[in-house]
């Protein structure tokens, strides 16, 4: 038997979906206007800068970003044409290659990050009192635990 959402749950769920969609769109719009990077570009660059050697195999990158490999491959090709990332052969097995952050990619993320962080702070964290921030963290972890379980 289907456990339909009650009115309160339905309202909450739809508000969450609207918030997520509008927040994503606004983050993308501002990042693009201020830095010329898309939110997807920014996510890839952050994933690379989070690694000590600023490089990763495509599959590792796809996993860390929760993207399908084909989507990432197409996006990386566009980023490579713009000089934000490069490719290096993998000496370990000769079968694959690494996606590497270029000097232009490093400059782009360094220039974009301060404005992006300020936007996130303005739109999310400045809107929430400390109690709500703690609750948001607990909610996110609870939902992720459900989503990530085998």
Describe the protein.
The structure is a single chain. This protein is 67% helix and 9% strand. The protein contains 6 helices and 3 strands. A 3-stranded antiparallel beta sheet has the order 1-3-2. Strand 2 (85-89) and strand 3 form a beta hairpin.
Short account of what is shown:
This protein is mainly alpha-helical and 150 residues long. The chain is 67% helix and 9% strand. Helix 1 packs across helix 5 and helix 2 crosses helix 5.
Number of helices: 6
Number of strands: 3
Terminal Cα separation, in Å? Answer: 23 Å
Output the radius of gyration. 19 Å
The biggest sheet, with number of strands, parallel, antiparallel or mixed sense and barrel status, is: 3 strands, antiparallel
State the secondary-structure class.
mainly alpha
Q: Could you outline the blueprint of secondary structure elements for this entry?
A:
Layout: H1 7-35, H2 39-49, E1 55-57, H3 58-65, H4 69-81, E2 85-89, E3 97-101, H5 103-123, H6 130-148
Antiparallel strand pairs: 1-3, 2-3
Describe this protein with a few key phrases.
150 residues, mainly alpha, 6 helices, 3 strands, 67% helix
């Amino acid at each position: 038997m289907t456990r339909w959402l009650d009115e309160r749950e339905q309202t909450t769920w739809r508000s969450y979906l609207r918030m997520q969609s509008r927040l994503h769109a606004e983050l993308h719009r501002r990042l693009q206007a201020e830095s010329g990077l898309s939110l997807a570009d920014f996510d890839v660059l952050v994933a690379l800068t989070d690694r000590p050697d600023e490089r990763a195999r495509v599959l590792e990158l796809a996993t860390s970003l929760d993207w399908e490999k084909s989507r990432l491959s197409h996006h990386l090709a566009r980023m490579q044409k713009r000089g934000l990332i490069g490719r290096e052969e993998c000496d370990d097995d000769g079968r694959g290659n690494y996606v590497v952050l270029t000097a232009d990619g490093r400059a782009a993320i360094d220039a974009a990050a301060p404005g992006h962080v300020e936007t996130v702070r303005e739109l999310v964290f400045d809107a929430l009192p400390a109690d709500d921030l703690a609750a948001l963290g607990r909610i996110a972890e609870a939902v992720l635990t459900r989503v990530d379980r085998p």
